[in-house]
Amino acid sequence: MMRVDAKDMGADLKEVLITKEEIDAKLVELAAKIDAEYAGKDLLIVGVLKGAVMVMADLARALSTPVTMDWMAVSSYGAGTQSSGVVRILKDLDTDIKGRHVLIVEDIIDSGLTLSWLLSNLGSREPESLKVCTLLRKPDAAKVAIDVEWVGFDIPNEFVVGYGLDYAEKYRNLPFVGTLAPHVYGG
Ligand code: XMP
Ligand code: MG
């Protein structure tokens, strides 16, 4: 099968940070822990569009727990690489989460602003439980007091793309997580 790989990004890519194999193995590991937590429970996983599409798809298939899936789209970034701190709902859940066990699935936590806003927004809808699983977490997330139950990888403070993550909507379909060359984003 033909695959996009690092070479196809040419000069845009600085390096591959996390390979497809490492992501796959990590999701199996996380799925086992999530299965243990929600055994016998009815679980709704909520993916945050668009970045979490790949994590949702692969994590959901690694889980043994039957789940239902819903999606939310929020915007905190505009087109650049800096968090604005202003979160807008672009698409709300289709599901009433009152009394449900809800797991938010994120691609990346950077400043933590998006997630802390999401936790208070969804928390106010009175779910039975509300937890978070993220594939990636950057160091700044430590500055915000938020509980993240399951973290795939703690990564350095660099802009990353691939596996759902974009720069100006590009690179989401790369099967790995890579760092961009500074010339791409003017760094
Ligand atoms: P905050 O700062 O609110 O950011 O925790 C969360 C959202 O910001 C986006 N984000 C990134 N997207 N590469 C990306 O492609 C990155 O390195 C990056 N850092 C933050 C992402 O949409 C995430 O949900
Ligand atoms: Mg983005």
TrEMBL record:
It catalyses: GMP + diphosphate = guanine + 5-phospho-alpha-D-ribose 1-diphosphate; IMP + diphosphate = hypoxanthine + 5-phospho-alpha-D-ribose 1-diphosphate. It is found in: Cytoplasm. One of its GO terms (cellular component) is cytosol. One of its GO terms (molecular function) is hypoxanthine phosphoribosyltransferase activity. InterPro entries: HGPRT (IPR050408), Hxn_phspho_trans (IPR005904), PRTase-like (IPR029057), PRTase_dom (IPR000836). It comes from the Bacteria. Its cofactor is Mg(2+). The keyword Cytoplasm applies. It holds the Pfam family Pribosyltran. Pathway: Purine metabolism; GMP biosynthesis via salvage pathway; GMP from guanine: step 1/1; Purine metabolism; IMP biosynthesis via salvage pathway; IMP from hypoxanthine: step 1/1. One of its GO terms (biological process) is guanine salvage. Belongs to the purine/pyrimidine phosphoribosyltransferase family. This is Hypoxanthine phosphoribosyltransferase.
